[in-house]
## 1
Amino acid sequence: MKKIGLTGGIGSGKSFIANIFEKLDVAVYYSDTEAKRLMNEHDGIRKALISLFGYEVYTEENTLNRNYLANKIFSNKELIASLNAIVHPVVRTDFNEWAEKQHGHYVLQESAILFEIGAYKLLNATILVVAPDELRIKRATQRDSVPPEEIMKRMNNQANQQELAKKADFIIYNNEKEMLLPQIIGIHQEIMKN
């Protein structure tokens, strides 16, 4: 079974694209969702996060204190890298175990930071979803109910779309001008062929 990565910056529409692939009977592993689950459930992650951020990183109900964590790491690239080093190896193992249980020609791993953490090297191919910055800001602002300045800060913490495009095997242009379905079906057929 092939393992294909699906990535894109905030507001690019990668989750929406992943949903379309699911309609084509492709199983999708949502890395961000699973990482949140694992940060709550995995003892090794829990111990490492407490060691790095203190006991406040978990609430009294023993769930991840996401606001506390976000405030700690937001503009600190070193802490972000440390967090990724703790969480992403566990996510990688979880993804591989999940993939073994799936059926079909290939599975998708949807992840915002596939290239940044080097996970793309462990996959058969990658799909990058790109969109103009103005559109990304508009989408993310509406979805997250936060001011545009907040989205711009998040975008500045992410890799540049042009740089990522050089590494991607496939690119989907989610710009509200080009039709999505023909792009997705074309990529799907290409992956199914090989």
## 2
Amino acid sequence: MMIPSRSLLLALMGTVLLTGCSASFDDVESQMEAIRQKPRGRVEPPPEFTPMPTYTYAAHQLRSPFAPPVDAAQLVTETGRKVEPDFTRPQEYLERFNLEALRLRGTLQRPDGPLFALIEDGNGGVQRVKVGNYLGKNQGRIAEITPTQLSIVEIVPDGRDGWVERPRSLNLSE
């Protein structure tokens, strides 16, 4: 007996709900017609594009504006000694990276052995280097390793078709 009354109740509720859907849409149609009758707006054209003049950067051989300035006294070469990079030397792995991308992460030393430095490269790897190894894009040769600092001598253009040695250093970063 319960089952027929449930079916009857569901049928009655469905009929009531569908009755609400049979209402007229005259008010909606009249509102839509009023919107269609309004004059259409005008879209403004985009502003005229004026191309900027191109600029050719011609100071690529000078010091990077993002590198710390170097005293002119440090750039003085020893008299009688000609400084030139050795382009015939095979390039070492850490010479692929700018010096600013390299980080000194620590040092290692075996008993009675030389001091090695641990350098984090631009790819996140760590490389072991010693005095005499090269790193950076400017022929940077490692001159000295201390427990907290790596002294480097780079060979950079002097701006007069010559070369000059520039001292740089990497400090232990925490």
